[in-house]
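quick one before i forget lol
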Amino acid sequence: MKTIQKKSACKVSDRAYRHILTDCINVMTQKGVASDIFMAVIMAVKEYLETGQLAHRPINRVRDIFALFRPEIDHAIRRATSARKAACTRRKERQLDSDRPATHAKNTKTASRFYSFPVVGSLKPGETPSAPRPSKGTRCPGIEHLRPNHLPG
């Protein structure tokens, strides 16, 4: 089955995107940031996460708040870039392995024995099991009267 790789419009993973935005919202809510600055910071963070740069120069207050989150965002972008590169490398290797014809070993060896000595009672190839031997009697005669919970009759 062929898997379709979804191309993300964002520079970071969906999980990192949600984490960063949630962190921004929580910090700004705790600090009591004004609603217009709040929305400007959220839009700046989204823009930076999607394109990797800011298209316009934000006002000083927005720039100061955005500077708080920028190291975390840059780290997430670097981590996502290296993860995507590693995934692409693995995908290419897997494709090369599937393109090559499978070579089977010409000399198949039988598995070595688990024990280095012959096991007593083990069957050899082609041998059938024999009937069980008859019992020689009671294992410990006279022990019946020593049972502690034995109730007669």
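fyi The CA atoms of residues 41 and 142 lie 92 Å apart.
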